[in-house]
Automatic annotation (TrEMBL):
It is found in: Membrane. This is Cation diffusion facilitator family transporter. SUPFAM superfamilies: Cation efflux protein cytoplasmic domain-like, Cation efflux protein transmembrane domain-like. The chain crosses the membrane at residues 7-27, 75-97, 109-133, 145-166. GO terms for molecular function: cadmium ion transmembrane transporter activity; ferrous iron transmembrane transporter activity; zinc efflux antiporter activity. It comes from Alkaliphilus peptidifermentans DSM 18978.
Amino acid sequence: MNRFKAAYLAISVSVFLVLLKVFVGFVTNSISIISDALHSSMDVIASTITLVAMNLAKKPEDKCHNYGHGKYEDLAAAIQSVLILIISVTIITQAALRIVNQNLITETLPGIFVMIVSITLHSITVLIMLKYAKKENSVALRANALHLLADVVTSVGIIVGLVIIHFTGLKIIDPIVAIVVALIIIKTGYDIGKESIAQLLDKSLSLEEMKIIKETLAKHSPPVLDYHHLRTRRVGQIRQVDVHLIFPNNFSLMDAHDVSSNIEKDIQQRISTVRTTIHLEPETHNHSYKW
């Protein structure tokens, strides 16, 4: 299996659960189950967006996209966060109307059953997706996995609510649980959106990765006298590193090139899917603009 098959799996599971939850939700008149069905319908859309984005992101570089098309994955994650927020507001609105109109749940056992099925299938799917998201550095697949993980958490909350209703008869708990579910979903959407927007705005690599890069540069000093304009970002799965290296005036271009090549290899050994661009400068060059 690869990340594309994992995305197809997410779509298949989500479609099945949407149909099951919609049916049981309307039969039992449970807004918490119906809200979870709406959330699962967003999973279908999100998983489809993820699949499309991953196919676009794997396209090679071209004249108009010199760094490739990796940001399609970040864009897909950002779109998912917006969808999550929209569905959350819808759930809260519908739950509030149920409380006002006293249009409450009629049955609980079918809902408990469908939530157990949902938790089981989603848990398996999330584990598979996270595995391949990490293995292939896919931002979009990870965002989709976190989206599904929110489903697992909310399904647990819904089961707890349904069990309480079953034994106490407090039917108003159903819309209250739906509102809590929506708030959890909003937090997930915020986290996904924050990360994806940071990548779209070319946020630097993590502190851990920056430390590795700086340690590698220090390892080659001498002959490298200093460096500046160290800039990093991530384009989809690819990590981009740009840096200017300063060499002694009497150091040959050939030797400087060899050192630069070794630096690139050392960074690649410690950071996966990295692309390094190095600019060579003599010691007497004006570095007044040093960063």
